[in-house]
Write a structure and sequence with these properties.
The complex is a heterodimer of chains A (363) and B (314).
Chain A: E1 3-16, E2 19-32, E3 36-40, H1 47-54, E4 63-72, E5 75-76, H2 82-88, E6 93-96, H3 100-103, H4 110-121, H5 126-139, H6 145-148, H7 158-170, E7 176-180, H8 188-205, E8 208-213, H9 216-222, E9 225-230, E10 233-239, H10 240-245, H11 250-257, H12 274-280, H13 283-292, H14 329-333, E11 339-342, E12 345-347
Parallel strand pairs in A: 3-8, 3-9, 6-7, 7-8
Antiparallel strand pairs in A: 1-2, 1-4, 4-5, 9-10, 10-12, 11-12
Chain B: H1 2-29, H2 43-52, H3 59-70, H4 85-120, H5 125-139, H6 142-161, H7 174-204, H8 207-214, H9 219-231, H10 233-257, H11 262-271, H12 275-303
Helix pairs in contact in B: 1-12, 4-5, 4-7, 4-10, 5-7, 6-7, 6-10, 7-9, 7-10, 8-9, 10-11, 10-12, 11-12
The chains are: A alpha/beta (363), B mainly alpha (314).
Chain lengths: 363, 314
C-alpha cells in the first residue's frame, strides 16, 4: 500500500485582532490507500482546522500556514496555487461537513448540486452526468433517486441530506474523503446509519477516509488508526485497538474514562439493596443524596476538570499538563517528544521517558 | 395557487376601493374650485358647469356614480382638458412607464453589481467606493442629481470636448433617456446595493459556499451559481417599495427633463382642481403598484423553492 497523504509538522495560525492564534502546532500523520484514520479531540483542539487545511479551505487570510508539508496524491498542497487547488478539490480529495442542514444550497435541486462536481472535473455528457447522479444517490441508499434528484434540500430529511452530501463527495471517486464530524448534527439512530453508509461507501469505492470526531464511540466501528489531538497537537496515535485497550497518554485515558458506560451507568453499586434504601431513607435524605450523587452508589458521568489551553498563548510544555493528574515538573517546561510504545503506536508523554520512575503506569 | 391568486385579487379590489374613497374625501377637502379662475364667471354658467360634471349632486351619489363607472373602464372626463381621463393616461403613460422601467432596471442591475462587488472585495477600496456611491444615492434627492447630470453631461461635456451626446432635456434619443433614468434610479440603486452587500456577506459565510468550494468550483463560479441567487431574496422583497419610489419619483424627474409623461398632468391636475383627472391617475397608479407588489410575491416563490405561496398546498 502506498501513502496517499503525508502531513509533516503542519502548523496553522490565524491572525486575529487579539494576536496570532496557533490552532495547529506541528501535526504529522499519513494515510494509506483505503485506510480510515480517525482524528479525535474535544472542541477547539484543531482537528477541523487540520482537516480543512488539507484542502486549503480555510480563508487565507486570516489563516496562515507558517510551516509544514502536505503531500496529497503527489500534489504539494502548501505550495499549490488557488487554481491548482480548485483542480484538486473534489477530485483527489473531497469533504463532508458537520451540519447537513446548512451544507446544501437551498435554492438548487440536489441532483444539480451533485452534477456540478462531475461537470467541474470530468468531461462527460449531460446524459451521462444525470445517470451518474442517480447512480450515486442509489449508492447512498436514497429511495427513488431519479425523482429525488430533482428535489430541493428542504424536501430531504437531515439523514438524507447527509447521504446526499456523501454522494456528492464521492461522485468523482476521490482517493481521500474527509468527513468532518459527519454525525454530530444528527440524532443517534441516524448516526449509526450514516456510519454504516460510510463503511459501505468505503468498501465500494476504495476511498481512504479521515474521520474527524469528538465521539470515540463513532471511531471504534470504522477507523483503522486513531490520532488523538489536544491543544493543536497530536498527543497519541495508534491502531484503534491500541487506543481503546492500551492507551499510553493520560489525555486519551481521560477521554476513554469519560465515555458513558451502558453497563454500569446509573445503576446502584453492588452490595447495596436498592429496595432497602428506598424504604429506610426519608425523602429529604435521598434528595441530598441525589445532589452528591456518588453516595447512593449512582455512577455519574466523568468529565476532565479544567479547560483546554488558550491557543493565543499556548503553554511551552505539554498542552495537557494543567489538567493532567500525573503532571511532573518537566511537563510544564518542555514539550514532550513522541515515544514509540508499540508498532505504529506513538505517544507524546514524559511518563514514557526512560528516566521517568516507573512507579505508576500511564494509565 | 389559483385560490391564492383569487384571494389576492379580492384584496386588491378592496384596497383600490379604499383608495378611491380616500382620494374622493381628500378632494372634497381641497380648497378652491375647478371653474373659478382669473376670469369672472357668470353664476348661471357656473351652475350649468356643476350640473354637467355632476358636482351639484351629494357626495355619496358622486362617489357611487364614479365607482360604478370604474368597472366599465370609464374614469370620467377631465374638467380642464375636456377629454376622457383614460385617453390622457393612454397618451402619457408610455413615456412614464418607460422612464420607470429604465430606472428600475438600472437600479437592480447596477445595485446588485455594486453590492456583489462590495461584498466580494470586502474592506478594500472597491467596497469603500461602492458604499460611497450608495450613501450619495440615498442622501441626494433625484432633482439635484438630475440637475447635476444636466450640468455635467450636457453642458460641461460640451464645453470641454465641443460636443456631447447628452441633450439638456427631452425624450428622443437613448442618451437623452439615460440621464433622467439614472437620476431617478440612484436612490433605489443605493438601497439595492447596500442590501445586496449585507445579504451577500451573509451568504458567503454559509456552509453551502464552503461545500461548493470543496467541490473545486472557482470563486467566480461559486458567486455566480450559489451565492447571488440566495443573496438576491431580500432585494426581491424591496422591489415592491422600490417600484413605488420610482413611480412617484417620475413626477419630479419628468418635470426637470421635460418628459411628456403622466407626472406633468398629475401635478397640473392638483393645482387646478381637476377632480376627475386626480382621481383617475391616483387610481391608475394605485392599481399599478398593487399589481407590481403581487408580481414580486410570485417572483419570490420562483426564486426560492422553499417559499410556497401559502394556499397552494390546500
Amino acid at each position: 500500500m502506498s501513502k496517499i497523504l503525508d502531513v509533516k509538522d503542519l502548523h496553522v495560525s490565524f491572525d486575529t485582532y487579539a494576536g496570532e492564534v496557533k490552532a495547529v502546532r506541528g501535526v504529522s500523520f499519513y494515510l494509506e490507500q483505503g485506510e480510515v484514520l480517525a482524528i479525535v479531540g474535544e472542541s477547539g483542539c484543531g482537528k477541523s482546522v487540520t482537516a480543512q487545511t488539507l484542502m486549503r479551505l480555510n480563508p487565507e487570510p486570516p489563516a496562515r500556514i507558517p510551516y509544514g508539508e502536505i503531500n496529497l496524491c503527489g500534489h504539494d498542497i502548501i505550495a499549490a496555487t488557488e487554481k491548482e487547488m480548485q483542480a484538486i478539490r473534489g477530485k483527489d480529495a473531497a469533504m463532508i461537513f458537520q451540519d447537513p442542514m446548512t451544507c446544501l444550497n437551498p435554492t438548487m435541486p440536489v441532483g444539480k448540486q451533485l452534477a456540478e462536481a462531475i461537470r467541474r472535473h470530468q468531461n462527460v455528457s449531460s446524459k451521462e452526468t444525470a445517470k451518474k447522479v442517480v447512480e450515486l444517490l442509489e449508492l447512498v441508499k436514497i429511495p427513488n433517486p431519479g425523482q429525488r434528484a430533482r428535489q430541493y434540500p428542504h424536501e430531504y430529511s437531515g439523514g438524507m441530506r447527509q447521504r446526499a452530501m456523501i454522494a456528492m463527495a464521492v461522485i468523482c471517486n476521490p482517493k481521500l474523503l474527509i468527513a468532518d464530524e459527519p454525525t454530530t448534527a444528527l440524532d443517534v439512530t441516524i448516526q449509526a446509519q450514516i456510519m454504516d453508509l460510510l463503511a459501505d461507501v468505503k468498501e465500494k469505492t476504495g476511498t481512504a477516509i479521515i474521520l474527524i470526531t469528538h465521539d470515540l464511540g463513532v471511531v471504534a466501528g470504522l477507523a483503522n488508526r486513531v490520532a488523538v489531538m489536544y491543544g493543536g497537537r497530536i498527543v497519541e496515535t495508534a491502531d484503534v485497538d491500541d487506543i481503546f485497550y492500551r492507551s499510553a497518554h493520560p489525555y486519551t485515558t481521560a477521554l476513554l474514562n469519560s465515555l458513558p458506560n451502558p453497563e454500569t451507568d446509573r445503576k446502584p453499586k453492588a452490595g447495596r439493596d436498592p429496595e432497602i434504601d428506598r424504604d429506610t431513607e426519608s425523602g429529604q435524605d435521598s434528595e441530598i443524596d441525589r445532589d452528591t450523587g456518588t453516595d447512593r452508589g449512582i455512577e455519574r458521568l466523568v468529565s476532565i476538570p479544567g479547560s483546554p489551553p488558550d491557543l493565543l498563548a499556548p503553554p511551552v510544555g505539554c498542552p495537557f499538563a494543567s489538567r493532567c493528574n500525573k503532571t511532573m515538573q518537566i511537563c510544564r517546561e518542555k514539550m514532550p517528544p513522541y515515544f514509540t510504545v508499540g508498532a505504529g503506536h506513538q505517544s507524546a508523554c514524559w511518563l514514557l521517558h526512560s528516566d521517568c520512575p516507573k512507579t505508576d503506569s500511564v494509565n | 395557487m389559483v385560490k391564492y391568486i383569487v384571494k389576492r385579487m379580492i384584496f386588491a379590489l378592496l384596497t383600490i376601493s379604499a383608495l378611491v374613497l380616500i382620494t374622493f374625501l381628500m378632494m372634497q377637502a381641497l380648497p378652491g374650485d375647478p371653474f373659478i379662475g382669473d376670469k369672472a364667471i357668470n353664476p348661471v354658467t357656473l351652475e350649468a358647469l356643476y350640473a354637467k360634471y355632476g358636482l351639484d349632486r351629494p357626495f355619496w351619489e358622486q362617489f357611487y356614480q364614479y365607482f360604478t363607472n370604474i368597472f366599465k373602464g370609464d374614469l370620467g372626463i377631465s374638467i380642464k382638458y375636456n377629454r376622457p381621463v383614460t385617453s390622457i393616461i393612454a397618451e402619457s403613460f408610455p413615456a412614464s412607464a418607460e422612464l420607470g422601467l429604465r430606472s428600475l432596471v438600472l437600479a437592480v442591475i447596477l445595485g446588485i453589481g455594486l453590492g456583489v462587488l462590495a461584498a466580494v472585495k470586502r474592506n478594500t477600496r472597491w467596497d469603500t467606493s461602492a458604499m460611497l456611491i450608495a450613501v450619495f444615492g440615498v442622501s441626494v434627492p433625484s432633482f439635484i442629481v438630475g440637475a447635476m447630470l444636466q450640468y455635467l453631461l450636457a453642458i460641461k461635456l460640451r464645453d470641454w470636448f465641443g460636443s456631447t451626446p447628452f441633450p439638456v432635456m427631452g425624450w428622443k434619443t437613448e442618451a437623452a433617456k439615460f440621464m433622467p433614468a439614472l437620476a431617478l434610479s440612484l436612490s433605489s440603486l443605493a438601497t439595492v446595493a447596500r442590501l445586496m452587500r449585507t445579504s451577500m456577506l451573509d451568504v458567503l459565510g454559509q456552509d453551502y459556499i464552503k461545500t461548493a468550494k470543496a467541490k473545486g468550483l472557482s470563486p467566480a463560479g461559486i458567486i455566480r451559481r450559489h451565492a447571488i441567487r440566495n443573496a438576491i431574496l431580500p432585494v426581491i422583497t424591496v422591489l415592491g417599495p422600490i417600484t413605488a419610489t420610482v413611480l412617484t419619483g417620475t413626477f419630479v424627474v419628468e418635470n426637470i427633463f421635460n418628459i411628456p409623461g403622466m407626472g406633468k398632468f398629475f401635478v397640473r391636475a392638483i393645482k387646478e382642481n381637476d377632480y376627475t383627472l386626480i382621481a383617475g391617475i391616483t387610481i391608475f397608479y394605485g392599481a399599478f403598484l398593487i399589481a407590481a407588489v403581487f408580481i414580486v410575491d410570485i417572483l419570490y416563490g420562483v426564486i426560492d423553492p422553499r417559499i410556497k405561496l401559502s394556499e397552494s398546498k390546500e
